[in-house]
Design a protein that fits this description.
The complex is a heterodimer of chains A (250) and B (164).
Chain A (H helix, E strand, L loop, with lengths): L1 H23 L8 H29 L5 H6 L10 H4 L5 H22 L5 H29 L3 H14 L11 H8 L10 H14 L23 H8 L1 H5 L6
Helix pairs in contact in A: 1-2, 1-8, 2-6, 5-6, 5-7, 5-9
Chain B lengths: L7 H8 L12 H4 L2 E6 L3 E6 L8 H15 L4 E6 L14 H7 L2 E2 L28 E4 L7 E5 L6 E5 L3
Parallel strand pairs in B: 2-3, 4-7
Antiparallel strand pairs in B: 1-2, 5-6, 6-7
The chains are: A mainly alpha (250), B alpha/beta (164).
Amino acid sequence: MKDQHFTYLLRLADSPLILAQRLSDWCGHAPVLEEDLALSNIALDLIGQARLLLTHAGRVESRDRDEDQLAFLRVENEYRNLTLVELPNGDFGQTVMRNFLFSAYQVEMWKRLQTSTDTELAAIAAKSIKESTYHLGHAADWVVRLGDGTDESHQRMQAALDRLWPYTTELFDTDETDRAAASNGIGVDPSTLKPGWQNTVSQIIDEATLTQPPETSFVSSGKSGHHSEHMGHLLSELQYMQRTYPGSQW
Amino acid sequence: MVTTPLTEEQVWSVLRKVPDPEIPDISITELGIVREIRTGHDTVTVVVTPTYSGCPATEVIASSICDALEAAGAGSVQIETRLSPPWTSDWLAPEAPEKLREYGIAPPGARTVSHAVRFVPPVPECPRCGEKKTTRVSEFGATACKAFYRCPSCLEPFEYFKPF
């Protein structure tokens, strides 16, 4: 029971943590200064969400692990993020397409988690929904602007959607941990988030003149700890300081 | 050193002088993040609601609060973070908008509930010349709480404190 609560919180925490790590790669490299600031600001919000969730997860676990230990000192298969967020950034189009798909998902999830029986989680959700809604607006604007842009930008955005789409199945995949969290009111059954998400996604994809790819039978499994080949490389950077100088602090 | 416990009102008046590290023209109380003060025998507890989850100023603010209160004679100072209800720009003090404007930042307008997925950007007045038709450059400014705008009249760029 406690283990499942802890794992459920880790899943919520790890996706923003890992996406923030990816987005921070853009700092100093974005196509224009304003987007450099935007992506860095979004990464900061996501790290903030991850910190609150990891701190809470550590308390639920009651093994004296704080946010830093959980963020930096787990091994790969203990991370519970969605595979979608660990994929390499690709070009700017792929980066904003992923932000779009993910923030649309987060918005649906925070909406529901605001009434979680876990009052700390409900408070984090009420705070985070405002941020994620803003991230969604930013990403959706770019998806439309580039999708319905030049031939080149349209083609790249369609390629981004085609590349990322198979990884969205995992967002709504439900297992024992999710079912336990949903049944005791702590969490939500992810499959029930699909209609709201699909509605947002369809609306923006249409406006962007893009085509939704067909469903595939592939289901990624990051949330169960089985990651893609990209995760190890990402963690080697994320964990470098704490592994090299254990316990170091700012 | 023997200290007399600070009263709640004394604590408030100390905190009214602690500047926001990003926008030093307004204080942390004017920002609306100090939600409650509890004074005990020799401890002061300050309850703070952070603005944005990822705001890097949060930790600086906590240490400025401790420093200011200790300098004013408080014994031990505890900072308690309260997430719920979440911070909103509606909590800015009545005098904050004018101070922001003087500092070159357009103050937040009223929050509107929008069900649009994409941005419906507000059009703030230029804080320098008062021009009403300004242009948004980016939804994100130098900090999470601000967006970036340009004035077509005085040609100055400016930041807009987002309604949130």
